[in-house]
Every structure is written in structure tokens, then in C-alpha cells.
Amino acid sequence: MTGLVLACATSLVLAPAAVAQVADLRSHTEFRVCADPAASPMSSDDGSGFENKLAELFAAKLEVPVSYTWFPQGMGFITKTLRAGVCDVVIGYAQGDELVQNTNHYYTSVYGIVTRKDSPLASVEQLTDPALKGQQIGVVAGTPPATHLARAGLAKDMHGFDLFVDRRVRDPIGDMLEQVKSGQLAAAVAWGPLAGPLVKQDPELQFVPLLKETESPRLFFRITMGVRAEEQEWKRELNSLIRRNQAEIDAILFEAGVPLVDDYGKALKE
Length: 270
Prior knowledge:
By secondary structure, the chain is α/β, with parallel strands linked by helices. It has helices at about 5-25, 50-60, 75-80, 145-150, 170-180, 190-200, 230-245, 245-255, and strands spanning about 30-35, 40, 45, 65-70, 90-95, 100, 105-115, 135-140, 160, 185-190, 205-210, 220-225.
């Protein structure tokens, strides 16, 4: 028997054991969530985020308690949490990201413009609106709307905020919205699930979803739960839970202030 054939035969013998080891990573006694401890309003170690509430819903349906592995989102998050086997699901993950295996999406949201309600820009619905010319606009650097703003000739008016930060010590979205409220910025363009809940809590601000943009990159994203690539059965179980409990999921998201849109980012979901 050649070395290659021996290696193949050995791999076939060992394959079931390897699969079993992967399957055993998932806990059947806890709903083990990988999460950022300071990504409010999404997740927080005080349990106040809407992703915390979704975790509680899923745990209740599975009749197990929730447990968390906390780690700041950014470089190394998936490697140190999900892939390390210390937790089993990331509650919010954009569809198509290759670092995880995506479940079916359970909501779709969109970027939008945040202004003061009494602002002259309060009626703006598109990033090509001439009213934005010469206005100071906040945006998270490297995100899709930054490309749209630059294409619209607004690069000189953009104020960039960092994308990957340790939210335990820095809060770029919160800072950006505070600058809109104070008038330091005329507007901000931000991701709906981050900005929407914060705006809902502030009577002076408004969030207008960007539903009319037709150029790429797209400004809407379908959000899934992330699991390990090998765990097909776990993914199917979560897909079933999403399908059977979509109304309760939507209620949690609506209550939080997350702007929900249809699967193509064209209309608000009601």
C-alpha cells in the first residue's frame, strides 16, 4: 500500500471520529453565545442589548440557560470565540461572511441618515441630494456609505469615525450622534441596528433609512446567526427556530428601534 493510499484509508477511518469531535463542541445544556460586551445597543454584558433579548428568546425555546463568552468585536473575534469552541453562536452576522457558516437570515436592515428633527436636512432621503453639499457629515470610515458620499462629491465634507474599536473604551457611533445633536455635524450616515435604537431614545434626532439608493455598494444587509462551518445540524435547528418564531423576533427588533426592511432594501417592514 502506497503512502498516499494509506493516508486516504486512514482519513476514511478517522473521519467519523473527527466529525463527532466537531459536533461535540456544541453544548446541549446551555445556549452559548459569542458576544461583544460593549456593543450596545446590540449586545452588552449587562443584558440590555436587543441581541441579548434574542439570545434569551432562543434559549427559552431550547429550554436551556444562556451563557456568554465576551470578546471585543474586531480582529480575532471569531478565532478566539466560535472557532475556539468556547461558544456556539454569534447572534448577529451579515449574510455571506466566510468566517462563519450563516443560518437563514432573520432580519434585513439598512444604513440611514441621522439628523436633528429641526434640521434643514431632515427631509433628505438620498446621498446625492444637493442639500448635503458643503455640510459636515459623519460616517464610519470604510463602510459602504462612505463610498457613496465620495462618489457624490462629498469627500471633503466627510468626517470619518473608526470602524474597529474596543467599544469598552470608545463609542464612535455614540460620539457621532452626539455631534449631530450638538450641531458639530449636520448629519451622520450610520448602520440602522446601531443608530436606530439610539435615535429612538433621543427626541431631538431622527433616522431616515436610505431606501432609494440604486448604485453599488448596496446599503442593506441580511443578518443571520453565525455557527461553525461543520455544524450543519445545529444550523438547521437554528433555522427551524427562526422560522417558527419570526413574529417574536420581529417584535424584539421593533421594540428596540431597529429599522427593518424587506429582503431587497426597498421598503420598510411593518
